[in-house]
Amino acid sequence: MSLDTHYLEKQLLALLAIPSPSLHTAAIADHLADELTRLGVVTRRSVRGDLLAEAPGGAARRAITAHMDTLGAMVVRLKDNGRLAVRPIGSWNARFADGARVKLHGEMGEVVATGTLLPTKASGHVYNEAVDRLPADWAHIELRLDLVETSPAALREQGIEVGALVSVDSHPSVTESGFINARHLDNKAAIACLLAAIRAVGLPDDVRLVFSCAEELGVGISHVMFDGIEEVLNLDIAAQGEGQNVCHHGVTIAMLDSLGPLHPVATRRLIALCREQQIPFTRDCFPYYYCDGDAAAKAGLDVRNALACFGADASHGWERVHRDSLLALSRLVMAWLPAQ
C-alpha cells in the first residue's frame, strides 16, 4: 500500500485534538491503541503510562520511539483577583503562553472550565507602558477562566484546586500552500508520520513501537521499554532558527544533541536510506535538545540511537511544519522498517 497523505493529516488533526501534557496521556494512548489494533498491532502499557506496540508474536530487536506527551501547565495558587497562578509542565518559555487558549481539567481528566493564559498586566488601556516592562516569566502569567464566579471560595466549590491540570489548545490550521500551523506538532506530527508508514508497509516482527509519556520532562525511555532492543530510531521535531541546518521540505537527521553525538552506525543507515530513496534531507546539530533515546543512553543501555526529524518553525511555541516534511519523514520510516 502506498503512503496515504489524507490518512496522515487526518490522524495528525485527531491527535492534536486530544489533550496530553506529560504523564496525563491516557486519552491519547487509548486513541493510539485503538488505531494500532486496527492496523494489526498488539499494544500494552507500562506502569507509568507509556504505550508499547509490536506485531503479534514479534521478537523485537529494533525500536521506533515518538513521544506522545506535550507541554502544559498546572495550577499552583488560587489568586484573590479571581485568576490562577500556574507553572509550566515541560520546558517552554512564558512568552509563548501569552494569549493561549486552554482547558482546565478535574481530577479524572474531565474539562471543568476553559480559559486564557495572560500576562498579569494584560491591558494597555489600564497599564500603559508598564505592559512593555513586564518580565516574560511564569511569575507574571496567570489563567483567566471563563467562569462567572471566580473567588477562591467559589472556585473550590466548583472543584478547582491547586494541582489542577492545564492543557493548551492546539488550534490547528492547514493552509492551501501546504503548511500546518498548530501547538503540539512536537511530537504529534511524528506520531502521525509513523502511523501512516505502518499503515503503508506494516510492522515487521523485529520492530517495537514506543510512545513515551514523559519526554518533555526529560525522562523519556527506560530499560523496560528497550528490553532486547539493539537500535532505536527516534522521531521528533527539528527546530528551525539562526545557525541551524534544518530541512524545511524534507528530513533533518541529527548528528549531535545536548547529550552528545548520535550513534554513527544508526545515523549512517538513515543517511544511506535517504540517498537510496531520494528523500530530501539535511544533517544538523541541536544545541538545546533532548530526545527519548537520550534517557536510555544516560542510563547506560547498550543501544544505538538515531534521530530523524520533521522540520518545524517556532518549536515549543506557535509551531509550523510543511506537509512535504511530514511526507519525507514518513517515507524514511517506510524505508527503515523492513528487516535489516
Provide a quick synopsis of the model.
The chain is of the alpha+beta class and 340 residues long. It is 27% helix and 28% strand.
Report on the structure:
This protein has nine helices and 18 strands. The strands form two sheets. Strands 1, 2, 3, 10, 11, 12, 13, 14, 15, 16, 17 and 18 form a twelve-stranded mixed sheet that branches. Helix 1 (5-16) packs antiparallel against helix 6 (185-201) and helix 6 crosses helix 9. The protein is of the alpha+beta class and 340 residues long. It folds into two domains: 5-70 and 184-336, Aminopeptidase (3-Layer(aba) Sandwich); 72-168, Elongation Factor Tu (Ef-tu), domain 3 (Beta Barrel). A hairpin with a 5-residue loop joins strand 1 and strand 2 (51-54). The mean pLDDT is 95.
CATH superfamily of the largest domain: Zn peptidases
Structural class: alpha+beta
Q: Kindly state the mean pLDDT as a whole number? A: 95
Biggest sheet features: 12 strands, mixed
The radius of gyration computed from the alpha-carbon positions, rounded to a whole number of angstroms, is: 21 Å
Q: Specify the overall morphology.
A: globular
The unreliable regions are: none
Order of helices and strands, N to C?
Answer: HHEEEEEEEHHEHEEEHEEEEHEHEEH
For the record, the CATH class of the largest domain is Alpha Beta
Q: Indicate the percent of residues in helices.
A: 25-40%
Give the termini separation: 20 Å
CATH fold descriptor of the largest domain: Aminopeptidase
What's the total count of β strands? Answer: 18
Residues in β-strands, percent: 25-35%
CATH architect. name of the largest domain: 3-Layer(aba) Sandwich
Helix run count: 9
